[in-house]
Amino acid sequence: MGVLCSVIRFENLHELKRLCHWGPIIALSVIAICSTMAMIDTVLWYWPLDTTGGSVNFIMLINWTVMILYNYFNAMFVGPGYVPMGWKPETSQDCMYLQYCKVCQSYKTPRSHHCRKCNRCVMKMDHHCPWINNCCGYQNHASFTLFLLLAPLGCIHASFIFVMTMYTQLYNRISFGWSSVRIDMSAAKRDPSPIIPFGLSAFAASLFALGLALGTTIAVGMLFIIQMKVILRNKTSIESWIEEKAKDRNQYYRTGEIFIFPYDMGSKWKNFKQVFTWSGFPEGDGLDWPVREGCHRYSLTVEQLKQKADKRVRSVRYRAIADYSGACCPLTKGLKTFFTTPCTEEPRIALRKGDVILATRGLKLVSTHPLECLKAGGVNLWALIHLSLFQILDVWRQTL
To answer: Main localization of the protein (predicted)?
Structure first.
């Protein structure tokens, strides 16, 4: 009870609005359908509760559901942890190594990034997950990863129940003829007969739940593998991308520098313990992080500043020649524009005729990675790509 109270506190009640989003609605619906159908199938048609195996199996199903929901809501409502508003380092000289966030009116701590969806600087931000309608970061990284582990395991168990239920109920209903195969779904031809007959609707519901369970196992299982890879290297998804860009920048300009990621402790077990602890709370305070020997505590932030400066050098200015309201699906621009809208939650910026947009050129001659299109000069460059896809604005290059 004490653990539950620590998760759902009075000041977190306003976070309930996070449930009113397509991500949590779909995720909770899948959990509810798979769990409910697995319990119904195992009690009514596969493994009755009056047997020891049936009772153990039913308890395991409930256990999967409780653990999945606990870690899911923990990741959603506890959140990633945010950099305190107005934060700055204790030593004023350290400010030169850090980026300043104009929205939060504070310096960005090492490993933190500003999330435009949450409108806050997130400590050790990994990504903004639409399925929990929150960021994955310092405080909830462990809960989020455990959810990614438990969900496939629970779905595998449920899939076994669905398959065995359909198999046992159809086994004595199938009759083979010389030229046809017949399935009698009216009643089972065996004793004892089930309390509720396994009809066509139950078969369809079990088959649908099986599809959801298998799809969830594959999709969420792949996400779990990706998360474990970055955790064992003591990185986040964003930091992996920053490291990749650092190598490209040094190779392109031939600086001779070798960027060493400072937070990898050199041991997968040590990296693992920074996220997963027996107490349930991650190590540290989310503001200051231990670094490997030979690295500066601001090695990563200095590299980020170099990449920002490089973007400003490579930026190209564009001028908008028509107004754009920022609507995601502007019906007034025609059906072609409406149906070719990219499926993304990235906000579009509203533009007026004559507004100037800074776009960053890639270092490579091949197509630039989408994450290359970040914010430069206070303008969302990913929105510029959306505008070109929407065919809303005719944007022409003009050197100012």
So the answer is: membrane
